[in-house]
Amino acid sequence: MTTTGSPSSASSPAASSARAARTRRTAWDLKDLVLVVVLGVVFGFAYWALVQAWNGLSILMGPAGDLSQHVLLGGWLLVAPIAVAIVRRPFAGVVAELLASVVEFVFLGSPVGPLLMVAAILQGAGSELPFALTRYRRFGWTVFAVSGLLGAGLVFFWSAFRSGWYGQEIFFLRFGMQLVSGIVLGGLLAKVIVSAIARTGVVDNFAIGRDAVGR
Length: 215
Fold this sequence. Notes:
Blueprint: H1 7-26, H2 30-60, H3 68-72, H4 79-87, H5 92-107, H6 116-133, H7 141-163, H8 171-200, H9 207-214
């Protein structure tokens, strides 16, 4: 009696299919890269506009104007979860945030200078981490909220070091305000924007569209 049909050979098609699926989830297509670049450029200009809003809000808040940056911080996190949700590729959020910071600094003359790129990497990494932990398969409200929370929280400690906030009586007030802003503006608002973009159909050829068809 022949024994050529071993369990390992029988399972090889399934294993190959699983490997192919993992490759599809991690491999970047050219269109993915182009879209992330476009998002980075667009949000670079949007972030510069947000700086102008920050300046205006700081004036309106008077003596508490220094806290205005924490109120709006979540806005500077938006591009990372949006990019990740659309292309669903590793490091999409980090790359998008970094590109936006380059546009802000190099082309629009951000007063923060090149250190802005350090903050961008931290924001992108924190914002992308919750999606990475789900292997880029979960994009619900909770994951977006945690994305904003971690993005705001991670960059806060870098900003606190640069700005000398450690030891201040309002240190935890700053921290709390920034976390709330991250959740609302950097997480939940990003989810709203992604859903609105998806409804237009313009991203149907990306991972977000393919996954929607497969559900």
